Amino acid sequence: MKQTEAALPKRIAIFVDGSNLAASARAAGFRIDFAKVLKYWQDQGKVVDASYFTALPSKEVQSPLRTLTDWLQYNGWVLVTKEVKDHLSSDGIFRVKGNMDVEIAVKAILLSDRITDLVLFSGDGDFTCLVEELQRKGIVVTVVSHFSRGDDCQISDDLRRQSNSFMDLKRHRDSFELKRREK
Q1: For the purposes of burial, counting CB atoms within 10 Å of the CB of 48, is it exposed (0-12), middle (13-18) or buried (19 or more)?
Q2: pLDDT of 31-84, one tens digit each?
Q3: Structural domain boundaries of the chain?
Q4: 10-116+129-176 in CATH: which number?
Q5: Which of 30, 94, 110, 111 is the most buried (most CB within 10 A)?
């Protein structure tokens, strides 16, 4: 008997745009528990890849982000990082730049023949084109971000509409919230 496509297990890639998710979680009012995120998607199918993308300050700079990235590396996540760059803006102010959009797009395309589903934790509208291309290849794309009608909305309307499904962080708080440990 031939197995139908629907009966085949999902092969899932989870991509977290670190800085975008941090802003979304702040807007939603809670911190993300990445062990819960991984478990949630493992319950949906086989997680082929779980990647966290972020720009980091140089090693000489102390950053709480390093604690998170160390934990992620030891707990089943692939870290994709680069060092932030300082640049002088046109208004004469030094700004920090560390966009990971290209790294996310390239890795998604490279994995596209090995996955059935991509879960993208980002609200960045620049990913709309990537989502459309992955869908042309038959990949189901779920976008996770924060939606509100107010100023704290973190999801691009174009990206939300292009995705196969959208998950609002606030509505899935129980699934993804990091609970403080009792002392």
Answers
A1: middle
A2: 999 999 999 999 999 999 999 999 998 777 778 888 999 999 999 999 999 988
A3: 10-116+129-176
A4: 3.40.50.1010
A5: 111
